[in-house]
Amino acid sequence: MTYCTPSDHFPIFTTLSVGRTPPPLPTFLSFRRLHSIDVDSFISDIQSSRLITNHPTSLSSLLISYNTTLSSLLDKHAPIISKLSKHRTKPNPWFTPTLHAFRSKVRHAETVYTNTLILLSLGYHSTSLRNRYHNLILIAKKKFYSNLVLSSTNPRRLWQTVNKLLHRKSTSPLPTSSSSVPLPDRFASFFTDEIFKLHLTLSSHLAMASPHYPSPLASPPDFSTFRPASKSEVSKTL
Length: 238
Prior knowledge:
Blueprint: E1 27-31, H1 39-47, H2 50-53, H3 59-77, E2 81-85, H4 97-115, H5 120-151, H6 155-165, H7 183-209, H8 231-237
Antiparallel strand pairs: 1-2
Helix pairs in contact: 4-5
């Protein structure tokens, strides 16, 4: 029997203040067991109700009788059940029953290795199972997403899958602003700066290509002042 030899390094102790993620708050779910309704009894109660035997003549009274009768019969045959439910994380679609069974096997081996003597054979066995489990996860992910990409006929869903695999998040193309008043000025300044940068880039390239290239006599207009459109102009444009 072979035991682990003690390490020749000094141990390092530290204290980490890592807060535990709070569990999700439980919620009450309300539902009806519609599949447990006795259909024959439900139909019999409807036929003997006032809605059939002595129904109102006006449309409004008929609608009220229809709603109250069916609601009361539904509460009788399939009452609302409230149940405390805890949110659970949705399982990954690539996590197959085979992986679930193998994970239980890995956890059992780790528990045996932790609760018994520290044997090298048990440690190697637990490490080997854990490495194999990780390899099976990679294979399952690769197979699932490959089939998803190959079988996807919707371009939007395909790009969503690709962005999810690449961990890319879509950013808002619009600037953040607490008020809509300064937004037009910010847009105008942005495009003015872009045109100015483009003009400088083109000028530098032309200057490098031809040193005697004549410079423009006047700078282009920046379109910084606009006159509000009148109602007649808008109506004419429409």
